[in-house]
Design a protein that fits this description.
The protein is mostly helical and 134 residues long. The protein is 37% helix and 7% strand.
Amino acid sequence: MSDFISRPQIEVLSAADGDRRRSWSDDDKLRIVEESYIGHRQAAVTTRRHGICRSLLTTWQWQYRNGELGSSRLVSFAPVTVTKVPASQANPVDPCPPSDCLVEIALPNRRRLIVPMGVEPEALGRILAVVDRQ
């Protein structure tokens, strides 16, 4: 009987007793990542608001940029803003734009590319292939 008293008692814990790991749907991940891109330095605020660690948000952002997060929302077209040129500046006779006209392209990875108006489509395609993949 003395042997039984000197041994410590054992307590069995099950996995259901502790905090469980949260699982996030793709829609939740997309919403959180897109929220983190709004404004300057929003990543830290977003992680605190949703109770996630910064490394998890970074992983989700990487997946978002590579198109691995929410394949149904892949960007295939970029938004374009068209502004009207005053009639005094418009020249319908000269179809060639001036050499100093530039076009700004906003890429899905938050980079901007500024190219001359008359850039060759093949050259622009090669530039976009390099800039958009990183």
